[in-house]
Amino acid sequence: MRDLVLAGMSTPQRSDSVNSSFDKYLHKKTSVQDFIKQHEAFLQDRYDEEARADSDPWNKLPITKSPSPLEKHMSVAYTHAVFKKGQVELLGAIACHPKPERQEGAEMVFRVQDVEKKQEFAVAWNELKAEISCVCRLFEYKGFLCRHAMIVLQICGQSQIPSHYILKRWAKDAKMRPLMPEAPLQAQSRVHRYDDLCQRAMRLGEEAALSQESYEIAFRAIDEALSNCVAVNNNSGRSSVEAGMSSASHGLRVDEENQSLNKMSKKKNSIKKRKVTPEPDDMTVEAQNLQQMVCCP
């Protein structure tokens, strides 16, 4: 759980935020019919708020409070809400005093004294991998870097926050980024293929539902794709069965040949045994006859 990014969300907080959102639309005596109407109004208001939140980062630049290049980079990369939180951490880095403690290969470990919190924090920075971590785990919990990591980045000459520390959900262009690669992935497992296809199907459904013409195009394409997939899977299944049957028949032929070879080898061994059976020599027989003639009167 230490390296899991929770983005500052917990179960009670999620429940409280949903309940507070409905407070101005519902009350204890709200009927079911009024609830449906108010729910539609609630959804419309949320859509409007989301649209304003999407347009504000592009139309209004946030106000920076320092000449730090890190703050300028955050103002361009983050949404306004997350930029304000990151700005607090960046300004709080003034009260932090880092000291190099040790170096382990490409990784530098700093001991950062936080004067405001009256604590010391260990920060590890790997320049080759552009990875930084702090024991306070603010990034893992909130989703943006802490003041201890930012002061280390500053003294190491970094003018931008590494891209993998700018979560997609906090970025300005979160909705403008492609949701998936254009080329098909080499997905080895069935689960990965299923997940990728589901994401593409959702994107297709959202786009094709905008008009009847686009719906008919998507409908025909899906129907044709389904037929092609069924045909390919049936052919592959049939070929695998045929391959299994051919391998089985080949195995039977091999077994029969082995059995016939074993029988022939057994016959040859029996013939050799009969030929090799020792017989008494002629000289031995003659010697025995002479001995008998001498012994007999």
Automatic annotation (TrEMBL):
TM segment ranges: none
Basic residues: bias regions: 264-275
A GO MF term: zinc ion binding
Domain SWIM-type: 121-157
Compartments where found: Nucleus
Organism whose genome encodes this protein: Kalanchoe fedtschenkoi
Main location: nucleus
Family to which the UniProt record says this protein belongs: Belongs to the FHY3/FAR1 family.
Name the record gives this protein: Protein FAR1-RELATED SEQUENCE
GO CC terms, sorted: nucleus
Tree of life domain: Eukaryota
Example GO BP: regulation of DNA-templated transcription
Region (Disordered): 1-20, 240-280
The keyword Flavoprotein appears for this protein: no
Keywords per UniProt: Metal-binding, Nucleus, Zinc, Zinc-finger
Biased composition (Polar residues): 10-20
